[in-house]
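Bug #77: duplicate submission created two jobs. Keeping one. Sequence:
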Amino acid sequence: MMKWLVVLSALVALSECLVRTPLIKGKTAREDLQEKGLWEKYRKEHPYNPMAKFIQTGTESMTNDADLAYYGVISIGTPPQSFSVIFDTGSSNLWIPSVYCSSEACENHKKFNPQQSSTFKWGSQPLSIQYGTGSMTGYLASDTVQVGGISIANQVFGISQTEAAFMASMKADGILGLAFQSIASDNVVPVFDNMIQQNLVSQPLFSVYLSSNAQQGSEVIFGGYDSSHYTGQISWIPLTSATYWQIKMDSVTINGQTVACSGGCQAIIDTGTSQIVGPNSDISNMNSWVGASTNQYGEATVNCQSIQSMPDVTFTLNGKAFTVPASAYVSQSNYGCSTGFGQGGSNLWILGDVFIREYYAVFDAPSKYIGLAKSV
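Kept job's structure:
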């Protein structure tokens, strides 16, 4: 389940408020823990549960992936205070650490100081966001938020008072959710919704390009998409639920044989999850088909010398085939090679970064469609 962390940086505005945010690669939290000799201990104490954020409990759940997703620089307040946040299409709230937090995770990250912002306003509600390995608690507030050169007035966000221990090993300070308001904790209006409502973007959509093989150039574009990032036509897939970016998946095939999602299933396009995640039996079958061995933590390892001979895996979405080669679904590190197929213990599939790196993704909120095209 290895995954590289990708850093959003160098925020550049496009014409007519189309905003491009580039990303660069960095070292994963997992690699950091492995180098410190703490990974085995962490895995035993915090079993991987990628489905935690998709369990609807009335509070917004977030990813428990130790190889947390994609993050970039935003600023909050007047004058602005800068923070790195994960851009997560699998959640809907924005939150950051605060000076009122004494958790170890907060000590390792930048902390927002409300007293230093002239535009800060306290909200009236507490905030609790559940992770698979713990939670963050805090308070709601509002202030000016700047993302990629766009300034959003009166954006409601969370400031933490406590944070889960595993956040101490993460590179990002907080999370910026890009899913729908219907799943936002306390029904907070998400950042991108406010961009649209305040007429700050030229088009009511955003797009994500994730580079591969440690290359730079990954980016999020708010207000449009870039045709230089993909080849061929964009396939537009209707959402089955405007909560997460959820669509219908017809099947998963290898060498023409259906190996998972037989008869159809539901899938999430999620930048906040590193792997492709599915039901335990389906993922086990897929890993078996590609020749992987699964350890006690559900991590499927392969011989690094076998990658060239391993089969493609095809995901059929809305009648359109999207193929992922072994070079994309196998990750290599100093610790060996593993597949990017993770067990989720639920019927809900997550098409995370392993998939998105292969397919440029365009998120059209008002029309409730996702556009996918082969990345270049």
